[in-house]
Amino acid sequence: MTELTPTLRNLRALCREVATDLRDRALAVDSDPDAMAPHLDSPALALVRNATTPARFRRDAVPYLGDDATATCLERVVATVELARGDAAMLVANPGPSLAGIVVDALGSDAQRELFYDAIADGRTWTFFAMTEEERGSDATALASRLDRDGGGHLLHGAKRYISNGTRGGIGVVFARTGPSPLSIRAALVRRPSPGLTGQVLDMTGLRGARISALAFDAVPVPAEHLLGSHLPASRRGLWGASRTFNAMRVQIGALALGVAYAAHDYVRTHRPGIQDTVVTARLDAARALLYSAADAVDHVPDDRRSPSVAKLHATDLAIRLTHWAAAALGPGSLLEHPLLEKWSRDVHAFEFMDGTSNILRLHIASAPDPAGRNRP
């Protein structure tokens, strides 16, 4: 079991304190996702943008915490569970580094990281992460988007779907292939607007504030200096190198889902004081301990995909079950009477499909070496 240091406990307490600000804004953003301007300076969203930016690129210190706050996967997961307990959809709708920042931090050169963080320094610029393709889902090795060489750079062709903040993002990361092998799959920084880049918002029932989108690339110019990982060994540039980034994302998404589960539990306790929920509480706390352990594993063994897959699979499944439990605990018509709970019941299903569906995660778990290092049959 992963024990939290005093710094991590302070981080958890701070995030729990500011998370109520997210909850207060959640229904307004769900109702009108384009009207984010009044919310961008909220204390919680500003804290998230600042804390998830590496210390050298921050404009302000993170209050009560050191410069290294949220630098590790464990720190980010501790913070995310508590902030998502306020409202996970508000976190996904926030401008800032988000998932793209994790990729840039892992694969980008110093110059690329500076380019990326300078582009979002105003706190008003969204980022996007584009991996999923229609009819290919979570199978990253089957992606068809390509980077065709053009002089000293490349031209990006293809299409991506289910991209948070895709149509309003100013800069993002797009995965495409320069050739047929897994080593040829590369991540590229792409700016918006760019010639040949178009997009549309998808009609979603959950996480509406994130403006989940589809993007199409028709010979979008990608300068050579925007191709991430060129300074790394070939085995660390493409999909194999990015796999450790996906491990960190996987635990982070599990933390978002678990935060929603805690939010639903808190809501039932508020509206039905005295409810017998000992088993529910134990399951939530056990899932949080599992996420902490998986995040700590990512920090120490970043190439092991089994622990993140187990943690995300369990957290997303429990979150869905918890919203069902909450609706039943509040009685018939509860989703009509309690708009926040109804919104969370929609939002929570999205996390199951982010960065690996449940079936893909089960395949990862089954094929990963067991703790003794042996391949599973």
What does the model show?
This protein has helices spanning about 5-30, 45-50, 75-90, 100-105, 110-120, 240-270, 280-300, 305-330, 335, 340-345, 360-365; strands spanning about 125-130, 145-150, 155-165, 170-175, 185-190, 195-200, 215-220. By secondary structure, the protein is of the alpha+beta class. The protein has 3 domains: about 5-120, Orthogonal Bundle (Butyryl-Coa Dehydrogenase, subunit A, domain 1); about 125-230, Butyryl-CoA Dehydrogenase, subunit A, domain 2 (Beta Barrel), CATH 2.40.110; about 240-365, Up-down Bundle (Butyryl-CoA Dehydrogenase, subunit A, domain 3). α8 (about 305-330) packs antiparallel against α10 (about 340-345) and α8 (about 305-330) packs antiparallel against α11 (about 360-365).
Tally of DSSP helical segments: 11
Query: Which sheet architecture does the biggest sheet show?
Result: 4 strands, antiparallel
- Report, as a whole number of angstroms, the end-to-end distance: 28 Å
CATH topology of the largest domain: Butyryl-CoA Dehydrogenase, subunit A, domain 3
Q: What's the helix-strand series? A: HHHHHEEEEEEEHHHHHH
**Global morphology:** globular
Q: Overall pLDDT, averaged?
A: 90
Provide the CATH superfamily of the largest domain: Butyryl-CoA Dehydrogenase, subunit A, domain 3
CATH class of the largest domain: Mainly Alpha
Short description, anyone?
This protein has helices at residues 6-31, 43-51, 73-92, 98-107, 110-119, 239-271, 278-300, 306-329, 334-337, 339-347, 358-367, and strands spanning 126-130, 146-150, 153-163, 169-177, 185-191, 197-201, 213-222.
